[in-house]
Design brief:
The protein is an all-alpha fold. It has two domains: 371 residues, Up-down Bundle (Growth Hormone, Chain: A); 72 residues, Winged helix-like DNA-binding domain superfamily/Winged helix DNA-binding domain (Arc Repressor Mutant, subunit A, Orthogonal Bundle), CATH 1.10.10.10. The chain has 21 helices and no strands. Helix 6 runs antiparallel to helix 11, helix 13 runs antiparallel to helix 14 and helix 19 crosses helix 20. The longest helix has 31 residues. It is globular, with a radius of gyration of 24 Å.
């Protein structure tokens, strides 16, 4: 059961998490590895080797995820000893060569990036079981709350100069402390979640992960396809970059918990892809003075991608028998490796005589493919994010829904088509999915839904579901 307040004894309670009204920093501890990984691999002190650092980092992050899954398969729960504080200590140690506090040769700096990537993987996996235990609404609150506070911390670090940037060394040590506190205060679910995914193969929304990989590839390419980018004035770039991310996270939290709107993840995925692809389109055609601003656009898209992906994986883990380490680990590889591949290929594309045409063509092709893979039907058939919609009660299965809808339809003189639409609505299907299934337009679906509500004397899908549970009496 979610930690959110509900309507009790006829009084409407807050739609925000109970714990959020008792503000605790521990809920946003996931921001620590996010902040560290961003700041560590984007240090200006890295010089000429800086372009190689993200590539090494993301390859090592992927390797760290896979190695831990393998080790846990072999050693069982004993592998968990690597998580928490050991991962944070390794992350802190790898900060030293990346900050440029002492002059080190290029191999030492890249070794630090590799160690940081592995440490970040272990740190992320430390948080996976906790997020898998939460209901989706709590995950949205914590993930986007972590994004909000993490971006505020990034802004502070971006404006600091040596020796104050050395604080980045101590930052990872806070992650296991906050994780321990969060584990103690996050309540156990009172209702066992429905298990949609019986095995590892079914737990992975492969088509959706393909779209994530496509978007990640674009993100990686944009960082290296630009020639001699200028990042000045740095404080203005950072303010716009992280300020926009803070506003985006605040908007999501307000929309879901204050406005009580439904979060359309397909639209969010599409917006992310379009943001990044638009930046890729502009990069080869503008001067160095403007490249930094375009890369800010890419950074905003990447931050949103990470937050949305984290909530998706938490939702899959919550409804799966598969270990959250396996779900998060393999899916995170689908994000990290394409970033490294795109970064490697970007410099090759930029060196071509017809780079502008190649980038525009690739941007168009990747955007179209991502939009096709990230559609409502793929999310619905994968049973993703259903908990943010009007939920189908546990005691009502799909077979009984068909029977009850037919019974209520006969009582209220619904047409055959209206009964078909009602069945699909009560099963949590979106209007676009219903339109595709019944070979009608979305406007026709809306018209049918409006007529159904009028005949049943209800005003929303939830009221229709309440009528369904009540057996037709109203």
């Amino acid at each position: 059961m979610s930690a959110f307040a509900r309507e009790e004894n006829g009084q409407q309670q807050s739609n925000w998490p109970i714990e959020f009204t008792q503000f605790r920093w521990a809920y946003f501890g996931l921001a620590i590895p996010q902040v560290w990984s961003f700041e560590a691999i984007h240090q200006s002190s890295l010089g000429n080797v800086g372009a190689s650092v993200p590539i090494v980092f993301f390859i090592a992050l992927s390797a760290g995820m896979l190695l831990f899954i393998l080790l846990r398969h072999v050693a069982g729960e004993r592998a968990s000893a690597l998580l928490g504080m050991p991962a944070s200590i390794l992350m802190a140690a790898s900060t030293v060569p990346l900050l440029g506090i002492v002059q080190l040769p290029e191999p030492a700096i890249l070794a630090g990036a590799a160690a940081g990537g592995v440490a970040t993987a272990l740190s992320y996996l430390s948080w996976a079981p906790l997020y898998a235990k939460m209901g989706l609404r709590d995950v949205v609150a914590c993930a986007f709350g972590a994004m909000l506070f993490g971006c505020a911390i990034k802004l502070v670090f971006d404006l600091l100069v040596l020796p104050w940037t050395c604080l980045l060394i101590a930052l990872p040590l806070f992650s296991p402390v906050l994780l321990s506190q969060a584990r103690a205060i996050v309540p156990e679910p009172k209702v066992k979640p429905q298990l949609y995914f019986e095995n590892a193969k079914n737990a992975f929304p492969l088509v959706i992960l393909l779209g994530v990989s496509v978007c990640s590839f674009i993100i990686g390419m944009t960082s290296t396809v630009a020639i001699a980018p200028s990042y000045t004035p740095r404080w203005q770039l950072s303010l716009v970059h992280h300020g926009a991310e803070i506003l985006a996270s605040m908007l999501v939290l307000w929309w879901v918990f204050s406005f009580r709107g439904k979060l359309h993840y397909t639209n969010m995925w599409r917006a992310i892809v379009i943001i990044v692809a638009t930046a890729l389109l502009f990069l080869p055609n503008i001067g160095p003075d403007l490249v930094g601003w375009v890369l800010v656009l890419v950074g905003i898209g990447q931050t949103l991608l990470v937050a949305v992906m984290w909530t998706m994986l938490a939702d899959v883990s919550h409804h799966s028998k598969v270990s959250p380490y396996t779900v998060f680990g393999f899916a995170w590889v689908a994000y990290a490796l394409p970033v490294a591949l795109g970064s490697s290929l970007g410099s090759v594309v930029a060196a071509q005589a017809n780079a502008s045409f190649l980038v525009a063509l690739l941007s168009y092709a990747l955007t179209v493919s991502a939009i096709i893979t990230l559609n409502d039907r793929n999310f619905i058939e994968g049973r993703l994010f259903r908990d943010l919609d009007a939920a189908v009660p546990d005691q009502v299965n799909f077979e009984s829904i068909d029977e009850k809808c037919a019974e209520i339809g006969a009582e209220h003189k619904l047409t055959k088509r209206e009964v078909e639409v009602m069945k699909l609505l009560c099963k949590g299907r979106s209007k676009s999915y219903i339109a595709e299934t019944l070979f009608i337009s979305e406007n026709t679906v809306r018209s049918h839904a409006r007529h159904i509500y009028q005949k049943l004397n209800v005003h929303s899908k939830q009221e229709m579901m309440d009528l369904l549970i009540g057996g037709g009496d109203r």
